[in-house]
Amino acid sequence: MAPVAVAQNGTDHSNGYTKPQNGHATTIELPMKPNGSLDDYKYNDLTPCIGREFPTANLVDMMNAPNSNELIAELALTSMENLRLRGVVWFRKQDNLTNDLQKKLILKIGELSGRPKTSGLHVHPVLNSEGEVGEQRDPDQEISTISSKLFSKVYGRHPDSALSQKKQNADQWHSDIAFEPVPADFSSLRLTECPKTGGDTLWASGYELYDRISAPVQKFLEGLTCTFGRPDFIAAAQRGGFKLYEKPRGAAENIGGELQAIHPVVRTNPVTGWKSLYPVGQHCQFINGVTEEESNMFLSWFKRLLKDNHDLQVRFHWNDPNDIAIWDNRCTFVHDQMKRFADASGDDPQLALKLNFQNDLPSLSLSTREDTHVAY
């Protein structure tokens, strides 16, 4: 099994982007291939291209099984027939999965899919900020407490603003912590309080987004980079009177309060070797090296591609506390339908614990999907 080709080191002086070398050395040979260890577990594929639910499997039992490494490695790959990877998986009612075990699981998934020793769990600059934001949070800084009440306080518009307080949820699509130089690879989200109604979460396939673009435009986009950032986080800290977490956030490169990074518009998932469109949603600031009008055009088009193609999306309803989702941010976008603004009164709260694992710097290389002529 040959490893994925790695982009050669060098700097494109037109936009300041440094193509990553293999500085974050992985611990396995990539791309990975399915080992079949999950085939005996009951599962439901929610759509043809994204999402698999394991309704009865128990993650703690998998972690304690004699072949636990094989099982967890297969979770990282999450394969099905014709090598079409699922992007996101769900497990129901994981009542024996503690916070510490959830951390151990995500770190193990990262290790078995090539985690370099320099990367670990992310510390969110706002959700784990230094200072009181008026909401109880988990004391473990590597666990992000996601609360509908907290989100309303931190991200809601100031009540004295002349702008309407109404929200358009289309802008909530994103890939986790893309504003960091080393963004999230795998994320896990476990709900500890479920609302009586609503609060669903959506995911979308970045593979499918890329594959629906014509070949000439694909090649053009592969030569571009995008600046990602969260200036609204900085504004929220100033408005709320708290300090962003500016110490290293899971990787040495993720430090300080600038919250800005440059990544390729098209990136390769090193686990699969497949290409995915990357700059979609709320973290994207602008495409580098083009005019403002052209940048706005591309970013709006990317978002419209995602919104208009419902067959590359999947929607998940949280039935019970301790339902958990695990997904790969290198090929998957998430839209958290947290009832963050509608239920700010606290009448029907939603509370979740989230872990983001960081691995490597985003890069572009040859797509195994093209090499193997896998049907899309």
TrEMBL record:
Q: Which cofactor does it need?
A: Fe(2+)
A single GO molecular function term of this UniProt record: metal ion binding
The entry's family comment says:
Belongs to the TfdA dioxygenase family.
Q: Which GO terms describe its cellular component?
A: cytoplasm
Q: Which residues form the TauD/TfdA-like domain?
A: 44-332
Where is the organism placed in the taxonomic lineage, from the top? Answer: Eukaryota, Fungi, Dikarya, Ascomycota, Pezizomycotina
This protein is called TauD/TfdA-like domain-containing protein
Q: Where do Polar residues bias regions lie?
A: 8-24
Give the record's keywords alphabetically. Dioxygenase, Iron, Metal-binding, Oxidoreductase
Query: What InterPro entries does its record include?
Result: AtsK-like, TauD-like_sf, TauD/TfdA-like
PANTHER family in alphabetical order: ALPHA-KETOGLUTARATE-DEPENDENT SULFONATE DIOXYGENASE, TAUD_TFDA-LIKE DOMAIN-CONTAINING PROTEIN
Q: Which domain of life is it from?
A: Eukaryota
One Pfam family linked to the record: TauD
Instruction: Map out region (Disordered) in residue numbers.
Output: 1-24
